Amino acid sequence: MCGIVGYIGDKKATPILINGLSCLEYRGYDSAGIAVIENNEICVMKDKGRVANLKSLSGIDELTSTIGIAHTRWATHGKPSQENSHPHMDNSNQFAVVHNGIIENYNELRNFLTQKGYFFLSQTDTEVIPNLIHYYYTNGVPTIEDRFLWAVKTAVDDLRGSYAIEVVCKLYPDKLIVVRKDSPLVIGKGSYENFVASDIPAILPYTKNFYLLDDCEYAVISNDSIQFYDSSLTTHDKPIKNIKWDANATEKNGFEDYMLKEIYEQPNSIRETVGTRLKLDEKCSFDELSFTKEYLSNINKIYIVACGTAMHAGLVGKNALESLCRIPTEVDIASEFRYRNPIIDEKTLCIYISQSGETADTIAALKLSKKKGAKTLAISNVLGSSITREADYTIYTHAGPEIAVASTKAYTSQVVLLVMIAMYFAEVLESSSKDTINKLKTSILELPSKIETVLKENDKIKELAKKIYKEHDIYFLGRGTDYPVAMEGSLKLKEISYIHSEAYAAGELKHGPIALIENNITVIGILTDPNLMEKSISNLQEVVARGAKTFVITNQKITDSNFDCMINIPTIDSLISPILSIIPLQLLAYYISKNKGLDVDKPRNLAKSVTVE
Ligand code: AGP
Question: Is the pLDDT of residue 248 over 80?
Fold first, then answer.
């Protein structure tokens, strides 16, 4: 995916565009560029590398234009290079375009345009768009007065795939046109200025009033107006949304990296997720849901479908749903689920989890299950994101903007939300005792202060990171609810430290993985379930006996152990212990990455959400 920003108003566009791009670098960071209309000509400045590199290009500070578009890229078609960076222009340098998404039929369109005499300077799919707009602008017969809008719309009609597109034309220095399909785009309304971005944080410092553009909807934006059109260019009004986020939410606030800030935000993000949904001695309330006892008792199966970290949250949620509601629950990786013809009918409930709400496989899987008649429930952190528009029901995590590519606070919010959903179902179904539910409620309300206690282990974890950051392989072991934590801890480590790592269910060790254990190998054990404690300790002893260095995260008093280091965390109901036990592993991955001198927030090859298959 890529990030796009746009500005039109009475201020210099360039600093606003560049600031916006810096906020969107989590979406892609292999090249960046801007296009502004300067003295009636389009001026494009772009290069491979990060936004900081763009900022240092000679002449960029001298640009005075008050209209512009900007882009930060995560390469799909064509390697990162100056030519492949956005914005792209048509051959006559009249139109400039930035694009997030993929044009699936770009080869066909490229051939068509080549036959018409157009040439291409890049390997991107995007470059067909400005040329196609130019083709229709100069050759078409517009059916409306606004020739620019008509040409954009006629070109877009030819595109197959996903796109969020911004277009400027040197002949119209007072407007920019945007359109989207299956890629996010928001428009921020200011006073005598308007903004465009792939995601709200990029323009949050300037406005809290936003329009969320719908699929196949166009907006023509000037200093003082935003006009919306549907796909047949009929105008319509649209409600504006006011976002309550603090502009500081997108700042580092004294932390060295967003990831560390987001780890430390977890006491508060959990508070926000729990919100008013849960109170002691009252039933859990989800205004978003209207599930009756009859509906819930007829569910034959729940599928939780997601990718990466969100899928790990689903594994924790499965335990809660099965144990509190006794409904069979399966967790699936979205990219597998969508192609394996899953058994789904109108008695199936499908829960889709996505922090960004834009993950292509998760959205496709949701569409598939809807087609098969299942009810769909989306869990997302991003207001109005694609997944929330597709699902029958949406519950927001309210974790606040998550900027670091490696997900931390969104994961813990997803977990607590899933457990609360399981409690809500159990209350409707009367499938668990009041005592069980009340104890769990108390535990959830204690989470923020217990997370604060875990965060106090920061220095010990920092020291541990110093000892092991040069390792080549690190293994994670856990049983029961500790197994998804092992998986998530291992993923966090891989993502930002590039250390090879695997997670195993501790009981599986003897079925193969133990062959990997040799002298001095690092093994991290998560031991929080009192019922499985003895078995997990035995598994860890087996690796100690084979020379492994063992580090243990536990909420139990383990005496007489020969583990190399123990991080103690508070005890809590085992259904939600993954929320506490993941925190030392998030910190460990963070400090290992810092010790290796890596870019924690923007790890290589990764983008915050994966909007392509
Ligand atoms: C998390 O650290 C990862 N960056 C990644 O696994 C992520 O969770 C996955 O791509 C799903 O993203 P989503 O929640 O936005 O759908």
Answer: no
Q: Give the mean model confidence (pLDDT) for residues 176-190.
A: 94
Mean of the pLDDT values across residues 535-542? 90
Task: Tell how far the Cα of 309 is from the centroid of ligand 1, in angstroms.
Answer: 5
- Compute the distance between CA of residue 232 and CA of residue 282 in angstroms, rounded to an integer: 50
Ligand 1 atom with least separation from CA of 411: 8
CA of 352 to the centre of ligand 1 (A): 13
Mean pLDDT of the chain: 94
Q: Which atom of ligand 1 is nearest to the CA of 408?
A: 2
Closest-CA residue to 585 (of 254, 251, 266, 274):
266
Indicate the top mutation candidate among 257, 356, 600, 606 to test ligand 1's pocket, ranked by most ligand atoms within 8 A of CB: 356
Band of pLDDT at residue 89, cut at 50, 70 and 90: very high
User: What whole-number distance in Å separates Cα of residue 343 and Cα of residue 349?
Assistant: 12
| pLDDT value of position 247 | 66
Instruction: Please report the atom of ligand 1 found closest to the CA of residue 355.
Output: 14
Cα dihedral value 13, 16, 22, 23, nearest 10: -130
Tokens 């494009």 sit on residue: 44
Within 6 A (CB) of ligand 1 lie 307-310, 354-356, 359, 362, 405-407, 495, 609-610
Mutate to test the pocket of ligand 1, among 304, 355, 362 (most ligand atoms within 8 A of CB): 355
Q: Work out which ligand 1 atom sits closest to the CA atom of 380.
A: 14
Domains recognised in the chain with CATH numbers: 3-245 (3.60.20.10), 254-455 (3.40.50.10490), 458-595 (3.40.50.10490)
Q: What is the pTM of this model?
A: 0.84
CA dist., res. 445 & res. 567, Å (int):
23
Q: Can you give the pLDDT at residue 560?
A: 67
Q: At what angle do helices 409-429 and 266-274 cross, to 10 degrees?
A: 30
Least confident of 26-35, 74-83, 551-560: 74-83
Give ∠ CA 398-403-407 in degrees, rounded to 5: 75
Residue 392: pLDDT band with limits 50, 70, 90: very high
Ligand 1 centre and the CA of 137: distance in Å?
Answer: 40
pLDDT band of residue 423 (cuts 50, 70, 90) is very high
Average pLDDT over residues 167-188: 95
Residue with CA at minimum distance from ligand 1 atom 6: 308
Catalytic residues: 2, 608
Q: What is d(CA 317, CA 25) in angstroms, rounded to the nearest whole number? A: 31
Q: Cα 474–478–483 angle (5° rounding)? A: 105
Interstrand relation of 500-505 and 88-89 (parallel, antiparallel or unpaired): unpaired
The residue whose C-alpha atom lies closest to atom 2 belonging to ligand 1 is 406
Are 548 and 500 spatial neighbours (Cβ–Cβ below 8 Å)? no
pLDDT above 80: residue 61: yes
Nearest CA to ligand 1 atom 9: 308
Contact 358, 1 (CB under 8 A): yes
Residues pairing with 570 in the sheet: none
